[in-house]
Write a structure and sequence with these properties.
The complex is a heterodimer. By secondary structure, chain A is mainly α. Chain A is 77% helix and 0% strand. By secondary structure, chain B is an alpha/beta fold. A 5-stranded mixed β-sheet of chain B has the order 5-4-1-2-10. In chain B, strands 6-7-8-3-9 form a 5-stranded parallel β-sheet, with helices on both faces. In chain B, 46% of the residues are buried. The chains are: A mainly alpha, B alpha/beta.
């Protein structure tokens, strides 16, 4: 199989032409009088700015590979993801809940990342930013979405099923027993999109990582190998961080006397 | 017995001293919103007082392992709650929550009949009426078998005849097994008829005290 390694470099005007899609969206919301213009503008600007910044950071990293810099960038991505979860969840989060989110995000993604890099892909040196950072991005980003969904469902369920949880406590159930059903429902809701992602992959949509590799000239079979590995890695990372979150998260609703907090 | 000393809770409960026997049948009466349910929640350790101590068998609640205490002193909320799909699952739930082993189908059926619930064990619990769900909850509690039953208006969704019959049968079973019952009732006549002691809500809401 021959590989076509030439790739069309996008010029400034070509990228600008792609913003027509945002203009289209703006026209639609204005026409339908949906008050979303500000968010659309802000998010497309943020996307542009963040990606440009990331592009330069990556360029710098590739030229100056260092274990410290790679770790620092991953830590920054992780902190940003955690902060993003705090922002995205509707309603106030208790300090314990924030801690549960931060701990489960950190442990879940770092463990999965280490396993994926050292056992599955095995690139060298271990901090090679060309591999480490995009993989970290995918794992952290998907875990972030998973935990956000997990927090949302857990909070809603504990609110709507409060009397049921309390009735179980009245019969001598531990908080773990009293919340088992809704904790499972939250876990399920949080990992469902990831499972659906695997179902649709390759038929309904070509996942981003594979698309990027193919466009940049990588043999599709090689690209698919990576894509399969990363989809499995993402699934594992989401499952691990969400189960950690649900296990820590439900406990934040109880005090040390095993009473539901107000 | 339960002992409340200088207990205050959220402008609802306020008592210098209150003693409630744990081996007889006690009715708690008073107007609605007067703190009767809150008293039961305090005794179930579901909430803790802002100040003062609650003790059971001479041991302050703070020295009890919370689930251990609740497995001896179980509470039934006024609104029935379902655990599981079938009648059988719902009846077993109290056993499982309280760390006790499951019981045979004969015992499930007997407890259901004791509470006048004539349904198949495999029937869906969701299809039961409010009154049937209350009887299901009572039967679940009987099967769980704590030492003390805290009942918050356990028969409020039943018509009067049924209400008296179910209470009669439940309390007969509790007496036979030498268990304590503390029940909240809006009907003074029912308290007079069934209870060995009656506690008026003003005895634990206005800084008062009572020794039955």
């Amino acid at each position: 199989m021959t590989e076509n390694t030439s790739i069309i470099e996008l010029s400034f005007w070509q990228i600008l032409a792609a913003y027509v899609f945002i203009v289209l969206l703006l026209v639609i919301v204005r026409w339908r009088k949906i008050p979303r213009e500000k968010e659309i503008l802000i998010s497309s600007l943020r996307m542009t700015f963040q990606l440009l910044l990331m592009g330069y950071v990556l360029m710098f990293l590739f030229e100056n590979p260092s274990p410290w810099l790679t770790s620092l960038i991953v830590l920054f991505m992780l902190s940003f993801a955690i902060w993003n979860i705090f922002q995205r969840v509707r309603g106030p989060l208790s300090r314990e809940m924030k801690r549960a989110i931060a701990v489960s995000m950190s442990i879940g993604t770092i463990l999965s990342l280490l396993y994926f890099n050292f056992v599955v892909i095995q690139f060298a040196p271990w901090f090679n930013p060309r591999y480490f950072i995009p993989i970290a991005g995918m794992i952290i980003g998907n875990s972030m979405t998973g935990i956000t969904l997990g927090v949302q469902t857990l909070t809603e369920h504990l609110h709507s099923q409060r009397s049921r949880v309390e009735a179980a406590l009245m019969l001598g159930a531990t908080p773990n027993q009293a919340t088992r059903k809704l904790v499972n429902q939250s876990f399920d809701a949080a990992i469902l999109p990831t499972i659906n992602n695997m179902v649709g992959a390759g038929i309904v949509f070509l996942p981003g990582m594979m698309t990027g590799q193919i466009i940049s000239g990588v043999n599709p079979v090689t690209a698919i190998g990576y894509q399969i590995a990363i989809l499995l890695g993402i699934t594992g990372a989401v499952a691990l961080s969400v189960i950690l979150f649900t296990q820590l998260g439900y406990k934040t609703y109880f005090n040390d006397r095993m009473q539901l907090k107000d | 017995m339960f002992q409340l000393d200088n207990v205050k809770y959220k402008n609802i409960i306020n008592t210098k001293q209150l003693t409630i026997p744990a081996d007889t049948i006690t009715a708690v009466t008073g107007p609605s919103g007067s703190g009767k349910s809150t008293l039961l929640r305090l005794l179930n350790y579901l909430v803790s007082p802002d100040s003062g101590t609650v003790s059971y068998h001479g041991k302050p609640f703070s020295a009890w392992e919370p689930t251990e205490l609740r497995r001896q002193v179980m509470m039934l909320p006024q609104q029935p709650v379902l655990f599981g799909e079938t009648v059988a699952e719902n009846l077993q739930a109290g056993r499982l929550f309280s760390g006790r082993e499951e019981v045979s189908e004969e015992k499930l059926t007997a407890a259901a009949q004791q509470c006048m619930l004539n349904k198949q064990l495999s029937d869906s619990a969701e299809n039961l009426s409010g009154g049937e769900q209350q009887r299901l909850s009572l039967a679940r509690l009987l099967l769980a078998g704590p030492d003390v039953y805290l009942l918050d208006e356990p028969t409020s969704a039943l018509d009067e005849d049924m209400e008296w019959n179910v209470m009669e049968r439940f309390l007969a079973e509790a007496r036979r097994a030498a268990k304590g019952v503390i029940f909240v009732s809006h009907a003074a006549a029912m308290a007079d008829h069934f209870a060995d002691h009656t506690i008026q809500s003003d005895s634990f809401t206005r800084g008062g005290g009572l020794k039955p």
